[in-house]
Amino acid sequence: MPLFWKPYKSDVTNFIDELKAKKPTLEAEQRAGRALLWDRSLDRSEQAEWREAQVPQQPYVYQTKA
Questions:
Q1: Contacts for 65 with CB less than 8 Å, ≥ 6 apart
Q2: Tell me: the pLDDT tens digits for 5-64?
Q3: Which of 39, 19, 38, 37 minimizes the C-alpha distance to 27?
Q4: How large is the angle between the packed helices 26-37 and 11-22, nearest 10 degrees?
Q5: How far apart are CA 11 and CA 60, in angstroms?
Q6: Alpha helices (H) along 11-66
Q7: How far apart are CA 1 and CA 44, in angstroms?
Q8: Cα 54 to Cα 34: distance, rounded to the nearest angstrom
Q9: DSSP code of residue 39
Q10: What is the pTM of this model?
Q11: Buried b (16+ CB within 10 A) or exposed e, 25-41
């Protein structure tokens, strides 16, 4: 290992570090945005209704029923 060795940091990592330094609330905003769509509790009765309402798909989707 050379005397003046320093760990490599990619351009993307540098960009993200700069972005976080400029906008410290970025991670909190990302978590709030994720919570809007993804972090939700699931209602088991609604899931059961959805499964019952599904129609089985035909083997060949584009063929009409004759």
A1: 58
A2: 788 999 999 999 999 999 999 999 999 999 888 888 889 999 999 999 998 888 888 887
A3: 19
A4: 90
A5: 48
A6: 11-22, 26-37, 44-53
A7: 58
A8: 28
A9: S
A10: 0.49
A11: eeeeeeeeeeeeeeeee
Give me the DSSP letters along 49-65: HHHHH--PPPSSTTSPP
CA separation for the pair 33, 27 (Å, rounded): 10
pLDDT of residue 62: 84
Written as one letter, the residue type at 50 is: W
Structure tokens at 16: 């993200």
List the structure tokens of 52. Answer: 């019952």
Residues 6+ apart with CB under 8 A from 27: 20
